[in-house]
Structures are given as structure tokens and as C-alpha cells.
Amino acid sequence: MLRPRSGIQQWVAREAYTLSPSVPVEEYTDIFGNLYQRLVAPAGWFQVHTSADVMTADVVDKAPGAYFVEIQHLPDAVLSYLLPSRYCESDRFGNLARDIVDGTSLGYDQVGRISDWIRDSVRYTPGSSVLPLSAVEVNGWSQGVCRDLAHLGIALSRSISIPTRLVVGFLYGLEPMDLHAWFEAYVGGLWYTFDPSEDTLRGGRLAVAYGRDAADVAVYHQFGPPAIFSSMDVRVELLDGPPG
Amino acid sequence: MLRPRSGIQQWVAREAYTLSPSVPVEEYTDIFGNLYQRLVAPAGWFQVHTSADVMTADVVDKAPGAYFVEIQHLPDAVLSYLLPSRYCESDRFGNLARDIVDGTSLGYDQVGRISDWIRDSVRYTPGSSVLPLSAVEVNGWSQGVCRDLAHLGIALSRSISIPTRLVVGFLYGLEPMDLHAWFEAYVGGLWYTFDPSEDTLRGGRLAVAYGRDAADVAVYHQFGPPAIFSSMDVRVELLDGPPG
Amino acid sequence: MLRPRSGIQQWVAREAYTLSPSVPVEEYTDIFGNLYQRLVAPAGWFQVHTSADVMTADVVDKAPGAYFVEIQHLPDAVLSYLLPSRYCESDRFGNLARDIVDGTSLGYDQVGRISDWIRDSVRYTPGSSVLPLSAVEVNGWSQGVCRDLAHLGIALSRSISIPTRLVVGFLYGLEPMDLHAWFEAYVGGLWYTFDPSEDTLRGGRLAVAYGRDAADVAVYHQFGPPAIFSSMDVRVELLDGPPG
Amino acid sequence: MLRPRSGIQQWVAREAYTLSPSVPVEEYTDIFGNLYQRLVAPAGWFQVHTSADVMTADVVDKAPGAYFVEIQHLPDAVLSYLLPSRYCESDRFGNLARDIVDGTSLGYDQVGRISDWIRDSVRYTPGSSVLPLSAVEVNGWSQGVCRDLAHLGIALSRSISIPTRLVVGFLYGLEPMDLHAWFEAYVGGLWYTFDPSEDTLRGGRLAVAYGRDAADVAVYHQFGPPAIFSSMDVRVELLDGPPG
Questions:
Q1: What angle is formed at CA C142 by the lines to CA C137 and CA C144, rounded to 5 degrees?
Q2: Measured between CA atoms, how close is D177 to chain C, in angstroms?
Q3: Distance of CA C145 to the CA centre of its chain
Q4: Cα angle value C25/C30/C31 (rounded, 5°)
Q5: What is the pLDDT of residues C51-92, one digit of tens each?
């Protein structure tokens, strides 16, 4: 899952995707609208290289006060983001979530409060990731990578009936540079960005895939004899103005 | 999620679905093909009544020796049943699964071996259900209802790369009568039925919904002020021959 | 395509669908959300019987003045109802449509004007149908059955950029009773009912299938040796109050 | 509809898509799997530029003798390609088609015979296109552009129950160079390429979009004040080996 799509928030102006050695690939659209590629990697050294020029906003929309959407008014396509999922056991977090948002007005502000609480309560440890942790595990261990913090934010928000989804992609200026993950919440009739791993919510984001959690949007799922991961190199650069 | 659909294995000849008091309802098809209904229940006593005359086989197809489908040959629509899900943490079961199926030929026989192992190792406790348990929990506690046993079968099978899905429905002759749950595995190019809560795999099954696990196919998801569940009555009767 | 679905405008409370002799059937959902059934009919006499108790409104919503939705604001799912289709050659009707709606305010009123124009200009000849006629043919011959009139309404409306779709179903009190067809236009953010075969727009409608035109929503598509149609019997009765 | 997708028959290794001046665009997947882009073009001069490096076969698969797939064995997703559509009135061609394929074995050879018959009977007039013609019109006028010839091939094939679809894309070496259109037929369990505008079926094809006919896969649908088309420039070049 490495090919970004043009959408409301970003436009893919140029893109490249090459495999060395070259092998047959099939591409599909999953149930979340992500493009994914299926291939049988050859034995031996194998390289995947992708790059894209993408136009995206340099500030993120915020909407303090955006209203809570009552369940009966949620669009059909949003409903599956309310349910518990592999790494977001929202069915086990009701008490904690209600405690965190106590006194907060319904909707955007509740998710903002949850995101702040995670930033204060869970240590962000970039680079420490092996397997994805579930929200219950992240909460128990009080530390995690960006994806783990997002999982906790998702589980807490869903447990108070706010639809939330994981976004995997890139963030300009991230230190150290790596793939990044954050989450979006559906309030006020739109999806808004939250990122509990950051002190300030910055723009310059490129979404590659959306899903309920990391089980849906792994960069790759690998089956068969184990692949030995030799290196991954991630770069995000600012281009000059719109592509010509 | 209470309206069964006609499919390859069953034909819905008559059906009724009534609400008392009557309220507006919308019906949708989810990503797994299930029909589900959305409604706002009124305050006070509320009754849902459904019934169906369904033609279904009185024996279940078995296929000992059916081959393992290599990942690259799986149909696109089957892939999501390979991934870990809320109650089936297949990413945590690789060692146990490989141990159970050691020496078994790839495919149907592996799932059969897993189903037998669950029947021997986990105590089936009908009626004890409150919340769904995840496969990790079921394995730790060594007991569960039909749905919990199915979750464990699903997680173990997926961890050895066999697609599996949960089926919720009814089984003729089940004692005590209740909703039932079992699982299907995709081997030999088809979905086959497994039921670790039964000594013998019986026919007379009516599938109401399919999903990755109980998070997808709950009979109902309820939001808002808690509903007090006053009673549920389930009956399955054998009709005389095809409906006239 | 004979199994109605519950939707925003109707609720299927009871339903029956039987085949004599009984044969295996598979059921699918098409791209418009309709349920359809595939079967191989046996040689000899073959009967299909369906019935349903459906709750539906006894008046149809009208919305004079409802606004024209600009193309860029149409939901993605509505776009395909703007394009020309088999029996609705909207790419050949621009001049006529602009002439008919001249001076009318954009949106609902334009479609109302088109529907009135058809009622005045094309003779409604119930029962005369053999094959579906296309809008160009209906306009040339100035007569047709309900479906043909609806095709013309659809083609004219699309040619002025208003999304329209064909509805096949039943109408309480239709004389002579038969299957019926009408059309819906997307204006003011909703689908509204228009029926150029009627002087007054009556309620008591049961929709069985939606599509761009009759090519999408034939009651049946038959392939292979020709079936000889021996008889079709259609009845619509008013039931007493909500089903118990 | 200008962004090709990677699929079984082609791999998009590099791609660019730019608009001058730059405007917001949204991208969607239609019901046929094509990517399409929605945008509001500004008043004044507006340019769309796309390019792609695509790996595709230099010969086209042929399969003389490939069997006719009986309707009951057609995959669900293929069924809509059997029905008549806007420019392919297959419901009006039964007699002609049966006459053309008389004595030919069922399946691939029938479509081959139809394609040959069109090449012999309809004059290919590249560059003469204004609006798409329907198969009935093409047959009546006995001339047309590549797309018109493909429409006739589609209508004739569907009328003998063989699913067919239009492909819009590029063909290496086409003289004069332009967008190209051909059709595919579903026989022997696969989609095979036919091109009645060519004497010999050449490879070097890049598919941009699939649909039932040109109504589904127009390069652009334009609404609102008419755009004056100032120029279109199409180039297809052979690259050296797989991209590095």
C-alpha cells in the first residue's frame, strides 16, 4: 500500500513506482478506497521505490466547537469507523474516555481533549516500533510510536461514539524522518485531523492510506518465507510552487 | 442484522420483519454483503420480531484433503479474511498454530485439526456469554461460548495463512436453542464450514451474517441510553418439504 | 429482479418468493443496490410467485422550487444518472429540453414542466408494450407505455444536467393493474418522484428496482431457448394499518 | 478519465498529471474500476497534461477456439456487459449477428468472425468523429471511427450472449496517432482483445478506461458553458527496457 491517491485534501501531480528486479504486479482498490498492489517477490535482493509530487495544504483545518454527529445522522459509509477493531478495542475504554472528556462539550472538543490527554500521559518513543500495539497495550505500557498513540486516540474516541480512522502517510519536517501515522475524527459533518504525537498540529501531510487501524493499512503484508528487511529510506522535501 | 439473504447455500422463501411499535427504518448492505437495518428505538417497551422460511441442506459439505490456496491465487475479495481483526488476533498465534497442525497436510485438514484441538482444549459453556471474548482471551481462559470458540479457530487458521470468517445464524436442533456462531475456512477454492462447539458437524444451518469476527456481525449495535434487554426468544423448526 | 428492499421510503414487513418447481437460485446486489436472483429455469411449466407487505406513504413528497444542484456539488454516487443510457439518449435532446423549460426556474420546476409537457404531448397507451422504446423513439412516435414516458422524461431532464433515474414497481389503484414505472429527479439534494403517465401524482408506491433505464431494471433478463410467457398476474391491495 | 491504472495487463511505473492553471481536483473510482477526476475549470485558457511510463505486452493474446461461457457460469461482475447500453443496442441485432456467425463454433471464433465482418463491411474513417455513433447508426451508415466500429462489435457480440466491453486507451504505432478504442470479449473465462479497425491485432496497448460503451468512458464529460477545444496532442513512444 504505497501509492497515494488524489483526494479532497491532496493532489498527486507526479508519481513513480518501480520494482527491481521487475515482476508482475496487480493493483486493486480495497474497501476503504486505498490502492494496493499484490506481487510475488523473487528470492534474493528486491527493491521497491516510490516517489510522488503532491500538492497539500501547509496548515491543517481545525474546528473547535464542531458538533457531535448523532448516530442516526451518520452517513452509512462512516459507520464502520465506530466499531472496535483489531488494535482499537473501543469496547473496553468507556469509563476512561468518559473520565477524560468530563465537562467538555460534545464533538471536536472531546477528541481534542483525548488527544491532549494522550500527549500528556503516554510517552512518544519514535523508532521503537516492532509490531503494532493495541490501544489496551499502549494504555498499559504508557508509551508507543506515533501509530500506537493514534490507536489509543481512536479507541477512546469510538468508545464515546465518535467515528475515527487511522491515516498512514508522511509529514513534512518530521524528526527523525519516517513513515508517520495519525488519526481523523468525524465531527461537524467532516473528517478532522488529530495527531497526539505532536505538540502543534502541523500541515504538510501526505496521506497514503486510510483504515480502521494498522491491520487495515499496513505498508505491506508479507506471507511465505520471511523477508529480511535490509533498509528503508524515507524522504520528504518541499517543492517550489505548483508543478509546471 | 437480522434479515438473512438468499445465497449459494440457502434460499429465503418467506420472511417477516416487524417492529412494535412501528418506527422508520433504513436498510443497507454492508461491505460483507449483509443486510442491516438502522433505526431509532422509541423510549419504552420495544419489540423486534423476525421469521423466515429458508431452504438449506441437511448435511454440510466436508472436503478432507482440499488444498491450501497460495496467497497469490486468493481472490481479491477473500484477502481481508486473512488479516487480524478485533477478536481474532491472528498476529499473536503463529507458534501455537504451527504446533497444533504439525504433520498435517496443508489446507482443509489443518483447519480440521485446529477445530478438533479447540474441542479438546477449550470448554464449551453455552449461555455464559456477556461480551465477546477475543481469541487471546479464550485461549487464556480455556472456555467460552460458540462464538468465542469460533474466534479462536479463526485466529489460529489465519495465523497459518488460511482465510477464515465468522458466521452468525441458527442451527436446527441446537440444545439449548439460541443464536449460534461458527466459522468458515477458504480452502480448495471454496468456503467450508467448521464448528468447534459440536462433536459432529451437522446440517440444518441458516446463515444470517458473515464477517471477520463478532465486531462486524453483532446482532445489534446499540448507541445512546442503555436498552434493558427484557427477553429474547429463538425458535428453529423443520418445515414440511419445499414451500408451496 | 423481484425482491423489493427496505429503504428510506418503504419498509418491507413481510415477503415471500417461491419457485415451482423449486430450483437452486443465487442472489446478488447490483451496482444500483437492487437485489437480483439468478437461476436456470427447468424445461416445462415454471412459476415464480412473490408477495410482500410493505409500508409506504400514501402521499408523495413534492417540492416546487427545490433548487438545481450544480454539477460540482452532486454526490459521487449520483453522477452516473447524468449520463446518456440505452433508452435515454440525453445527448440528443438538448434543444427540445431547453425549449420546453424556457422561462422556468432551475431545478424541480424544470422537471415538473418536462413531465407536464410529456403528459400533453405523448399519448399514454397502457398495455401496448412489447420491447422498451428509447426516448428518441417515444418522442418520434408520440405514444408509449408508462416506462416509455418515463424514459423520455429522464432523457429530457438529463440533457439539462438534472440527474434522473427509472423506478420500476407497483402503484396502488393503477387501472388496469400491472407493473408500473416512473422516474425520480435529483433536485434540492434529494430524489423526487415524477410520473408523466398520471394526471395527479398519487402515493401508494412500492419501488422494486432503480436504474438508469429499463436496460438496468428489467423484471427479468432471459437467455437461451425462448421462454413462452403463459401469464402474469399482478395485484396490489391496501392492508389494514401496520403489520402486527 | 485520464489516469491509467495498473492491472493484470499493464504496470504504471511513472505517471504525471498536471493542470495549468492549477485548480482543486477530486478523484474517485467508478463502478468499472476506472479512476476519474472532477474539477471546475477556470474561465480562460486551461491545459491538462498527463503522461505515463507503462509496461505492457508487445503481442496480444489470442485464443482461437476459446469456449463460450454459458450465462449461468458467468461471474457476477461480468453480467452487466451482456446488457444493451447507450451506444450498443444489442437488443436490435439478433438476426444480423446470427447470420454473421452462422456455422462458426461458439465463443472466441464468433467474436473473431464478427470483428472480421466489420472490417470488411464498415469503412474505417479515422479522424471523422464528432459525437459517438450508436451501433445502429454505424451499421446504417457503414462507416465510423475506431470507437464506432468497436460499438458495433460490442452490440453484435452481446446479441449472441457474449459479454463485451469498450476499452479506451493508446496503441503504439497508430497512424495517425490519436486516442484509440477497441473492445474485449469474455470467452474461455478471460477477457480477450478485438480491434475491428486494424488488419492485424497488434500489441503495445495501454488501457486508460473500461466501460460498456463510450457513455461510460468518455475522456471528459463537460457541463456548463461550452469549452472551446483549442488543441489535443497525443504521443506514444517506445521506452528502452523496464524503468530503472
A1: 75
A2: 27
A3: 12
A4: 170
A5: 999 989 889 999 999 999 999 899 888 998 999 999 999 999
| β pairing state of B180-187 and A35-39 | unpaired
Report CA torsion sign: B148, B149, B153, B156: positive
Tell me the residues of B at the A interface, defined by beta carbons under 8 Å apart. 28, 30-31, 38, 40, 71-72, 76, 80, 82-86, 89, 91, 131, 134, 161, 215-216, 221, 223-224
Q: D31–C161: do the CB atoms touch at under 8 Å?
A: no
Q: What is the 3-state secondary structure (H, E, C) of chain C?
A: CCECCCCCCEEEEEEEEEEECCCCEEEEECCCCCEEEEECCCCCCCEEEEEEEEEECCCCCCCCCCCCCCHHHCCHHHHHHHCCECCECHHHCHHHHHHHCCCCCCCHHHHHHHHHHHHHHCEECCCCCCCCCCHHHHHHHCEECHHHHHHHHHHHHHHCCCCEEEEEEEECCCCCCCCEEEEEEEECCEEEEECCCCCCCCCCEEEEEEECCCCCCCCCCCCCCCCCCCCCCCCCCCCCCCCC
Strands D164-171 and D180-187: antiparallel
Among the partner residues D91, D131, D215, nearest to C131 by beta-carbon distance = D91
Query: Cβ of B13 and C8 within 8 Å?
Result: no
Distance of alpha carbon C128 from alpha carbon A197, whole angstroms: 70
**What are the tens digits of pLDDT across the range B78-125?**
998 999 999 999 999 989 999 999 999 999 999 999 999 999 999 998
Chain D residues touching residue C89 (CB < 8 angstroms): 86, 134
Pull the grid cell for residue B189: 477454492
- Chain B contact partners (≥3 CB pairs within 8 A): A, C
pTM: 0.84
Report CB contact under 8 Å: D72, C161.
Answer: no
Per CB-CB distance under 8 Å, the chain D contacts of A29 are 29, 33
User: Is C5–B16 a contact, with Cβ atoms under 8 angstroms apart?
Assistant: no
Between CA B26 and CA A244 the distance in angstroms is 48
Interchain pair D216, C85: CB under 8 A: no
Bridge-based pairing of strands D143-144 and B123-124 is unpaired
Closest Cα partner for D80 from D187, D158, D174? Answer: D158
What is residue C67's predicted lDDT score, i.e. its pLDDT? 97
**Residue A232 falls in which region: left (phi positive, over 0), alpha (psi -120 to 50) or beta:** beta
**Residues forming a β-bridge with D210:** D167
Q: Residue C21: is the preceding peptide bond cis (ω within 30°)?
A: yes
b vs e for D106-145, b when ≥16 Cβ sit within 10 Å of the residue's Cβ?
bbbbbbbbbbebbbeebebeeeebeebbbbbbbbeeeebb
Please indicate whether, in this complex, the C-beta atoms of A161 and B223 are within 8 angstroms of each other.
yes
Give the Cα-Cα-Cα angle A64, A66, A70 (nearest 5 degrees).
145
Place of cell 441458527: B170
Cell digits of residue A27: 493493483
Amino acid in the structure at residue C6: S
pLDDT averaged per 10 residues, chain C (length 244) = 82 89 84 86 91 90 96 89 95 93 97 97 82 92 94 97 96 90 96 95 93 88 79 86 53
Q: Which chains touch A (3 or more CB pairs under 8 A)?
A: B, D
Q: Please, what sign has the CA dihedral across residues D27, D28, D33, D36? A: negative
pLDDT tens digits, residue range A192-223?
999 999 999 999 999 999 999 999 888 788 88
Q: What are phi and psi of A139, to 5 degrees?
A: -65, -35
The position carrying cell 478519465 is: D1
pLDDT digits (tens, 9 = 90+) for A218-229: 878 888 777 777
Complex ipTM over 0.90:
no
D and B: touch, per 3+ CB pairs < 8 A? no
Map residue D136 onto helix, strand or coil: helix
